[in-house]
Design goal:
By secondary structure, this protein is of the alpha+beta class. Helices cover 26% and strands 47% of the residues.
Amino acid sequence: MADQVLKCSVITPEGRVFEGPVESVIIPAHDGQLGILRNHAPLVCKLGAGRLRAKTAQVEERWFVDGGFCQVFENEVTILTRRAIRPEQIDRAAAEAQLAEALQMVAKDEVSARRKAEAEASARAQLRMVS
């Protein structure tokens, strides 16, 4: 098993964004960054909003991802997310407007408080990627 390649797939509802061999993957888990190398223990975790990085032999691929799940099993990393956007595709003005809207949201109960926090985190993560 030590000579196996780490494979990564990034999938959105629109289709497969990336698939290929990688040296490492760094995901924005819901509770912080998580690095994945070859022969990582099996794992399923919830994603937060933030920067997803997949280092190939040639380059480091990067996307903004907005929630979802990650599964690691037998040297395969599968990322299912609502959105995977390249940093150069992020519209700064739209992200700023999204943050302003999120800051105006009223948190009346646990559900609306969670939605407000998720909207703020998503907008802030997008703005960090274009800074």
